[in-house]
């Protein structure tokens, strides 16, 4: 457990390297099975998912997301999924492209001054600001960037607080008035207030008629026909807000880093963008003609999957790959370690977008899973990939990013995979801009 707390990424990678694709480990009082073997992962996510519920490690997520689509199971989950699904269909998501490019324009403007002076900027918070705008405008019909100053620290705090590590401050009852509990409550209140404000605006007729919020306000309980209560609506909004913007912001950060760190990658991308777009703003129609952009994003999500691991809890005894899985034990599926398995990936530590070109064999199913898999696969994967592709294209058209000399960038596993200590990049105007 102490290594899990201080170096979770090193631990999961070592466990796979030393013991293989199915590993049982004791994390403090918990028995946890780490799965990186594609067959074992398929068993849990696709073949026998009813036996693998959210489990104890997801409980921490409820602190900031309530009981929403990410943290519930069974009928509770199903009703949320059915309600949310239409908003995430590819065609619907693609209609949001102009909102995405509009938000990127705002970021381009924000970076105009530092770029004119070739300054170094820690890009992480700005990319979170961008994805907060995209998420809230597309799904809520409201721009939550106006509250970014209070929301950003709340989100940052939640990323640590949601992971159960057995720290005393987490284990004490909620009513014990520690400083930690006071901070936690303050940040929870900030998030709740922001979501309640989104609802209030809709109720006042100030929202978007076709938004997810409108659908939630009109939803009824399947068994009673009663409207959803305020807490259930708020949980759903918090879930989408938290699961949607932070992950995508991380994906963007790592992709920009990959481009900044490798002049060869940047040159190839610039040349593709130049020949397909000239100086035009990218749109959905352009994407099929930008294969390198797609490969680059896929490779970035392989090497730095924003959700580096996700858990499950076993309901009943089971067997996976010849190993007994006791009821009540936990499972951990870490894309970060699966994506570095040398049995699947050549030189896994290298950033090579070409491995995703059609001429190469596709990786086996469940050996590449940045968005999870089975019925609980990420509902936002179309939105996330569209946002990352359009953003990376536009930012590369306008700016040239480089890693300042002597800067070492290392990932750290909070709920999402973040660059430890931020991501400082030098921003300059692209020569053609
Ligand atoms: C690069 C960005 C993203 C990554 C890497 C990512 C990753 C994931 C993963 C791995 C899961 C599965 C978790 C599990 O099975 O336990 C998941 C689920 C989920 N994601 Fe994402 N996600 C991203 C973006 C988004 C966006 C944009 C949204 C919404 C706006 C979103 C909303 C959700 C929700 C609601 C779930 C729960 C789905 C369910 O349980 O049915 N995610 N995500």
From TrEMBL:
Record flagged with keyword Oxidoreductase: yes
Cofactor section: heme
The organism's place on the tree of life at top rank: Bacteria
Alphabetical keyword list: Heme, Iron, Metal-binding, Monooxygenase, Oxidoreductase
Sequence similarity: Belongs to the cytochrome P450 family.
Name of the protein in question: Cytochrome P450
Provenance organism: Amycolatopsis minnesotensis
């Amino acid at each position: 457990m102490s290594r899990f707390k201080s170096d979770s990424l090193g631990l999961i990678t070592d466990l796979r390297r030393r013991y293989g694709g199915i590993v049982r480990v004791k994390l403090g009082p918990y028995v946890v099975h780490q799965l990186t073997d594609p067959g074992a992962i398929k068993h849990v996510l696709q073949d026998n998912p009813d036996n693998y519920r959210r489990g104890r490690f997801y409980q921490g997520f409820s602190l900031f997301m309530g009981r929403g689509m990410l943290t519930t199971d069974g009928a509770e989950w199903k009703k949320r999924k059915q309600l949310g699904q239409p908003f995430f269909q590819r065609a619907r998501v693609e209609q949001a492209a102009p909102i995405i490019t509009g938000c990127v324009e705002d970021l381009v403007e924000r970076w105009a001054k530092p770029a004119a002076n070739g300054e170094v900027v820690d890009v992480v918070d700005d990319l979170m600001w961008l994805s907060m705008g995209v998420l809230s405008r597309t799904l809520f019909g409201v721009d939550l960037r106006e509250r970014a100053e209070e929301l950003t620290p709340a989100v940052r705090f939640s990323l640590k607080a949601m992971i159960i590590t057995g720290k005393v401050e987490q284990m004490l009852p909620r009513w014990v008035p520690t400083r930690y509990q006071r901070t936690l409550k303050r940040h929870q209140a900030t998030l709740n207030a922001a979501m309640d404000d989104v609802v209030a605006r809709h109720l006042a007729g100030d929202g978007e008629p076709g938004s997810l919020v409108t659908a939630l306000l009109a939803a009824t309980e399947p068994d009673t026909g009663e409207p959803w209560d305020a807490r259930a609506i708020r949980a759903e909004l918090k879930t989408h807000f938290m699961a949607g913007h932070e992950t995508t912001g991380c994906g963007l950060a790592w992709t920009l880093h990959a481009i900044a760190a490798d002049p060869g990658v940047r040159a190839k991308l610039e040349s593709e963008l130049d020949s397909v777009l000239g100086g035009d703003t990218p749109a959905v129609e352009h994407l099929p003609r930008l294969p390198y952009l797609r490969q680059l994003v896929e490779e970035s999500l392989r090497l730095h999957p924003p959700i580096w691991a996700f858990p499950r809890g076993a309901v009943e005894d089971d067997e996976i790959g010849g190993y007994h899985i006791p009821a009540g034990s936990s499972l951990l599926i870490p894309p970060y370690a699966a994506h570095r398995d040398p049995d699947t990936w050549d030189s896994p530590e290298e950033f090579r977008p070409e491995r995703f070109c059609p001429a190469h064999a596709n990786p086996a199913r469940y050996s590449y899973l940045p968005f999870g898999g089975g019925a609980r696969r990420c509902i936002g994967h179309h939105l996330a990939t569209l946002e990352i592709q359009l953003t990376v294209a536009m930012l590369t058209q306008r700016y040239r990013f480089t890693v300042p000399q002597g800067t070492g960038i290392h990932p750290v596993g909070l709920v999402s995979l973040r660059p430890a200590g931020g991501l400082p990049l030098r921003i300059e105007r692209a020569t053609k801009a």
